[in-house]
Amino acid sequence: MTPPHDWALVKRTRFSSPPMNQIAISSSNDERQQALIRTVQRMSSLEAPIVSLSGSHGLAEILSCRFDPTGQNITACSADRSVSLWQRYAPNTNYGLLANLHKAPILDLQWSLFSPLLYTVSADHTLNVTDLTTGTELVVTGADDGTVRVWEGGDEGPKTPISMFELSCPVTSVCCSADGMNIYGGALDNKIHVLDLCKNEQVYSLTGHTDMPTSLSLSPNRSFLLSPSFSSQTIIHNVRPFSPSPAHIHRVLMSAPAGLENILLRGVWSKDDNGRHVAVGGVDRTVCMWDVESGKVLYK
């Protein structure tokens, strides 16, 4: 019997399987005798299916533990009257130990949903509120008189600046480094001045702009500085301690026009993907978005 002539060969797409973990059990070291008992699809970013956080409380019992609202940190309280703080993901650093918060074992703890506060209750019939922020809150301002001023934040801060830097021209934008030790100040001389808070002096300048930078923004991974300018040129500077480029320039982006109105256009980094994209507004009433690694325009 002759088959119909309307048959056709159809190619099926081959889908890649998601990452899986295989668990096998055997009393022999021979892989051929190992029996597969379960296959598990990994849906977590943890380094391993089971992660052990140990070493902070010795032999004392762990009475409670909580994730913070971001899910990135874990706190644990113990019968030794201390609270330990851990990073959720690798390397799972134990970055803090709050000792002797109470006079008796700490029974439970909870994070505040709106501020970096930790609440603990103890068998000594007390409730303790601990502020987990460290250091001093600082506010940095730049002005047309060519000064960059550093102020102490908070309600109890003084009304006078705690530090001041004088540049030779008006300052259009300021930004702090990730460690809070340096201040980046964009100025009318087309440079970004790097100011050291410890030395109270300028240490170097970031060059490359042919016109005044209009804003500064540090990347989420704290390695790059975004700076649009009046030349319609947006430069991404590498501000890591050891830059492969002597000029500290990582990317030069175009397509966001600045115009002749001298408007201080702002640039931002994407937050949910660790800064893979940047966006800058233009005087043409559009927002231009680039891919950082390729430098290509994604949307406009």
From TrEMBL:
Source organism, top-level taxon: Eukaryota
PROSITE patterns in the cross-refs: WD_REPEATS_2 (PS50082)
GO molecular function, one term: RNA binding
Keywords: Repeat, WD repeat
Keyword match Protease: no
GO cellular component entries: catalytic step 2 spliceosome
Residue ranges of WD repeats: 122-152, 274-300
PANTHER family named among the record's database cross-references: U5 SMALL NUCLEAR RIBONUCLEOPROTEIN 40 KDA PROTEIN (PTHR44006)
Name of this protein: WD40 repeat-like protein
Organism: Laetiporus sulphureus 93-53
